[in-house]
Amino acid sequence: MDISVIVPLYNEAESLPELEAWIRRVMDENNFSYEILFINDGSTDDSWQVIRSLQKNNPAVKGVCFRRNYGKSPALNTGFARAKGNVVITMDADLQDSPDEIPELYRMITEDGYDLVSGWKQKRYDPLSKTIPTKLFNATARKVSGIKNLHDFNCGLKAYRQKVIKHIEVYGDMHRYVPYLAKLAGFNKIGEKVVQHQARKYGSTKFGLDRFVNGYLDLATLWFTGKFGVKPMHFFGLLGSLMFILGLIAVMVVGGMKLYNMYSGNAYHLVTDSPYFYLSLVMMILGTQLFLTGFVGELVVRNSHRRNDYEIEEELNINNEE
């Protein structure tokens, strides 16, 4: 099969018939073999009934219906697990992503050799309250992830080589960082394509400003797990050691100053009268706790069944004859 189109959706009953017809037209014009996976994320409208009716007229239509709303990341991960196409396309169900982009995205994967191609909605039809935070968010994501050629991490229109989606796990709200997840899994051929952004035709947006706060927290999580996920002591142990040593030095300085004043005949105070003494103790205690956190983290990693899971690109079996 050439292409799997994955469409996560929540309360998009009005747009689904038009979207399915649009995708079907593009596929037929380019003679692609395809499937459309509608992932109904617990919609409360007639979305699932619409998907059922679409499937009767088009056998390429497939669907999964969640019992309740879980979010876009679980919907994408479910679609990834079921996709069979050599190239996987993801797009939103609100008709803001154009299926006319599919042939070029497919070509970039199959001919240009990209592992992942992300859409860039260079011209957006969104209010400033959404576009300005989005630009700040994408700038931070580029800096942290090191994927400097992407301008729009959160664009729903993306294309993947099949082996990419089979080697990443999208959970929580990590759908914003699928390119970063792909990079952490060893897929570095990541490209970008300017795509058409259309104004929303039906319904209203499902996202609020809280997604930007959650987005930064998720980015910090990905950065930490990608860098220290299998070696937590390198982070907590180093930070804890530095704090403990600085606290110890500070305590020694406070005690040394008292001893100096005592033997020099100068006026002196108890070390417990100095606020620096307590700050030093706090630093030593925090340093010890961070160091022990690193030990606990190492024990968790050591007992994880995935501690030796490595991404192998290719393996050559050589049978040595004796």
Question: Overview of this structure, please?
Answer:
This protein has 322 residues and is an alpha/beta fold. It has two domains: 226 residues, Spore Coat Polysaccharide Biosynthesis Protein SpsA, Chain A (Alpha-Beta Complex), CATH 3.90.550; 70 residues. Helix content is 48%, strand content 11%. It has ten helices and seven strands. Helix 5 runs parallel beside helix 8 and helix 9 packs antiparallel against helix 10. The longest helix has 32 residues. The mean pLDDT is 87.
Helix content class? 40-55%
By CATH, the architecture of the largest domain is named Alpha-Beta Complex
Number of strands: 7
Find the CATH topology of the largest domain.
Answer: Spore Coat Polysaccharide Biosynthesis Protein SpsA, Chain A
Spatial strand order of the main sheet: 3-2-1-4-6-5-7
CATH class of the largest domain: Alpha Beta
Order of helices and strands: EHEHEHEHEHEHHEHHH
Report the total helices: 10
User: What is the residue-mean pLDDT, rounded to a whole number?
Assistant: 87
Shape: elongated
From the alpha-carbon coordinates, what is the Rg to the nearest angstrom?
27 Å
Describe the main β-sheet briefly.
Answer: 7 strands, mixed
Query: How much strand?
Result: 5-15%
Note poorly predicted spans: none
Number of domains: 2
Class by SSE composition: alpha/beta
Alpha carbon gap, first and last residue = 44 Å
